[in-house]
Amino acid sequence: MTYKYTIEKIDEYSWRIPREGKMRVDGIVYASETMMKEIQKDESLQQVINVSHLPGIVGHSLGMPDIHWGYGFPIGGVAAFDLDDGVVSPGGVGYDINCGVRLLRTDLQRIEIFHKLDSLVNALFKSIPSGLGSHRKDLRLSYQEEKNVLKNGAQWAVSQGYGTKNDLEHIEENGCIAGADPELVSERALERGKAQLGTLGSGNHFVEVGYVSEVYDTKTAQVLGLKKDGITIIVHTGSRGFGYQVCDDSIRTMIKASKEFNIELPDRQLCCAPIKSQQGQDYLASMACAANYAFANRQMITHWIKESFERALHIKPSESKISVVYDVCHNIAKIEDHIVDGQKKPLCVHRKGATRAFPPYHAQTPDAYKAVGQPVLVPGDMGRCSYVLVGTEKAYTTTFGSTCHGAGRVLSRGKAKQLARSRNISRELREKGILVRADSRATMDEEMPEAYKNVTEVVDVVEHAGISKKIAQLKPLCVIKG
Amino acid sequence: MKRYTLIDHTADIGIDIFGDTLSDLFSNAGFAMFDIITDITTVEAKDQRIIKVEGIDREQLLVDWLGELLYLYDVKNLLFKDFLITDMNENQLTASLTATIRGEKYCETKHTINTEIKAVTHHALSVKLEHNRWKARVIFDL
Fold it and tell me: Of A63, A94, A139, B63, which is the most exposed, with the fewest CB atoms less than 10 Å away?
């Protein structure tokens, strides 16, 4: 397929798609030359252009180096909108609202657990529900209680005994986005949410136990509680069926709203409404419910991870000292202050498959990390590695404080399955010292390492572009996949 | 004649669906979705229900129809194999359909979930008549 647009090279790591036709701003994509060739093969750049058509967009329509073809917005897309004449679009957040990543650190060393990985992976698989219809037998949620989850997010989970108050200081927005209104969400969303709280979900969602394989900045790593060979855990999940339903319901409303406000859409999935309209405000309040649901979900799963460690390794929590490094959203729209034409201004920043990357001393950078910058967690595929970075001043001034979120797929699921058909991915990984338990062979095959870009290349781009700083590399030891 | 084909979308899954009539097209869309989710040959027609769906136009109706089936899958854990569109109406303002669907409840030892579909998107959505055959395109979020 060929697409009609111009691409100009700005420097080694960034590219401009100049404004033309109905574009309101330029598109800017962060990528290396090699990556850019790959990126042009699908519709990702056309999607960057489509986003630039939306009313009230400020600065540029941005693409991070892990950009790939999404629906509506590209995955890896960032766009900010003026509060007065800009729009909010559910398609700019996605179905899995606040799909995100949490990183846990421990006092354990690789050598202490590596002979017990089998029982650890089994314990995790047993205690964290995944797969259709699965749920914790000890968790019964009433609709009233569910509404408390939606209002209070991770704070609700802590109040129920899942983790401690200290955890909340290590979560984006302290684990609760303000303004959530449970009365706005549909019966159907509540019904789906009630059954699925505390479940991992499937596809690319996972819990991964790994270790710190490289440290690039010892001082910062120390502040984050990370040291070489120390055991870490990554949790990747989101708002489950609740978020999907909220997005689905909102899109229906927004298709009508786009007509009502005469917004011309290059793609129906980009349907939107002015931020200050009733529809816009209702979406933000419903989205906050889903974001909070996801924060609570990761908080509960963290608790079960701690239990699994205790059970499988017979190590007391006081010895393993599992604690939260940070928890970031990858799919979200937020009202944040940014500098526009030299002036501080509140904007509605959409991050669809992108991570907030606030600099040192920013008001929203958590106290514990004030001097080093907000931690950015970038998981890779299950065979290679993941990275911990921190936000920078340059990210704040050029990308609305945003950076990449992961590796990004290169193979479609169909192609990955074909490639994996004659192989045994589970065994291949085991031979590399990585134990994987997945709900089905299909998931294992679709998620094979080769299906993803090399996350190292992605992270190198954001580091060279100056929008994040590399702190440590993590390698997997065992993974559970939904 | 093929009922549907997969489109090679990097992150998600897309399908092109075909049908001689609009009713066939919608029925094949339901089949395609559950054929992606599970091995549809393992599903038995033990449960039967009638559902009615409405949308603002043909395209929206397709998303809503698949969305309704996905809801039943997600909340009631039902897998379906037969989709009979018994009534289909269209006018300038709305499109609606009534369907009889048959399947059974998911059972861990009997069924395998191959792909978990999160949602039916509106991206690149189309429903059109091409050379006297109906063709539709839908992208799922996985």
Answer: A139
Distances (CA, A) of B26 to A328, B84, B131: 40, 9, 18
A-chain residues within 8 Å CB-CB of B114? Answer: 440, 442
Q: For A59, phi and psi rounded to 5 degrees?
A: 75, -110
Residue A2 lies inside a defined structural domain of this protein? no
Q: Which residues of A37-73 are buried (b: 16+ CB within 10 A; e: fewer)?
A: ebbbebbbbbbbbbbbbbbbbbbbbbbbbbbbbbbbb
The 10s digit of each residue's pLDDT in A185-209 is: 999 999 999 999 999 998 789 999 9
Structural domain total, chain A: 1
Residue B91 vs residues A346, B122, B123: alpha-carbon distances, Å? 44, 21, 23
pLDDT grade for A1, boundaries at 50, 70 and 90: very low
Contact A324, A399 (CB under 8 A): no
Domain total for chain B? Answer: 1
B77, A247: Cβ pair inside 8 Å? no
Residue span of the structural domain in which B66 resides: 4-141
Q: B93: how many CB neighbours lie within 10 A of its CB? A: 7
What CATH number does residue B34 fall under?
3.55.10.10
* Domain residue limits at A230: 8-410+452-481
Residue A202 · residue A443 · CB < 8 Å: yes
Compute the distance between CA of residue A337 and CA of residue A316 in angstroms, rounded to an integer. Answer: 43
Q: Are B116 and A202 a contacting pair at CB < 8 A?
A: yes
**Residue A135 Ramachandran class (φ > 0 left, ψ -120 to 50 alpha, else beta):** beta
**Minimal Cα distance from A446: which residue of B?**
B115
Of B113, B122, B124, the CB nearest to A251: B122
| Region of A221 on the Ramachandran plot (φ > 0 left; ψ -120 to 50 alpha; else beta) | alpha
CATH number at residue A260: 3.90.1860.10
Residue A444 lies in a domain: no
CA-nearest residue of chain A to B39? A442
Residue A305, φ and ψ in degrees, nearest 5: -65, -45
Question: pLDDT tens-digit profile of A252-283?
Answer: 999 999 999 999 999 999 999 999 999 999 99
Q: Do A244 and B71 touch (CB under 8 A)?
A: no
Of A71, A192, A195, the CB nearest to B141: A71
Q: Is residue A443 part of a domain?
A: no
Quick one: which of A44, A405, A403 has its CA closest to B123? A44
Structure tokens at A227: 């040291």
From the list A14, A19, A49, the residue with the least C-alpha distance to A35 is: A14
